[in-house]
Structures are given as C-alpha cells and as structure tokens.
Amino acid sequence: MKPINIKSTMTLYGDWVKARKRELENWRYYHDDDRVAKDEELTAERYDLILSDKGYLSLASKLAEVQERAKARLISADRILLTLTDVEETLDIPKKDMNGITVTIDDNAQSFPNAYKGIPESTRFTATYKNGWRVTEICRAPTCSRSRRVVVEHTDESRAALINRFTAWE
Question: Fewer CB under 10 Å: which end of the chain, C or N?
C-alpha cells in the first residue's frame, strides 16, 4: 500500500478538538449567550475542513476498500485520527524525537472464548511518524488481545526521549 500522508488532516483535527473543547467550556459558563452559537458554527466549519482534506479522503476510501465485505470490528477514519492523537499525547515527547516511530493499532482488540467458531478478525492499521503521521498499512487481520491493542516500535531517539522524560528533574 502506498503510504497516506495525513499530516495536514491531523493538524486540522487538532484545531477541531481545541475548538470543540472551547465550545464545551463556553457552554458550561455561557449557555444562553450567542458565544455558544458562534463556537458551534466555527466547530462545524472546522470539521467540514477535515472531511474535505485530501489525506482524510484517501484514508476513508482505503478503509472502505479494505472493509468492503466486513460486518464486525470495523474502524473509521475519525477513529484513526483520534487514536494517533492519543498516541502522541501518551508518549509526550518532542516531535523531532518521534521521527521513525511505527505504531500498529488494533482498535477492536479483545479476547474471545475458545468455543468461538472461526477466527475473529478486525481492521488494523500501521502508521509511521516522519515529520507527521503516514498510514502505511490498513488490513483485516485476526483480532489481538487487549494487551496488544497498541504496539509501538521505537527508535533510539524516541527511547532516549522517553527515558529523559521520566528521569529528568528540573
């Protein structure tokens, strides 16, 4: 599969998440004011920008192709964006140190009883960070256990940044 560059989509998604948080905060404090209506309008416009982005459209079309005949344990392009954002926030290391990191994610990871007939499959994706996320593979594969939901392959720089993050005291 040709890698799908979703750097601009992730930027738009981050802006949308920030606008959504601001909208919710304003709703808590100003729920009868015009500010909420303006924020909702802004949030909707930002979400429309995500949906029309080239990276998002490529991602959605590849997902539709891979999941064409599947009925269970599917994922959406929005879910991919959310999961990659969560990975970034969880690692919490500088972007320059993230270059080269590869993550394989099975968002529907779960355990099944041995009496289950057949091999349960879910949609998995693999993404690599190189100055922004690139989705390198989307496939249907046997469902992982919960402990293997997110598998991160680190580079030496990312390992050093993680060690520094947990050991540095200021």
Answer: C
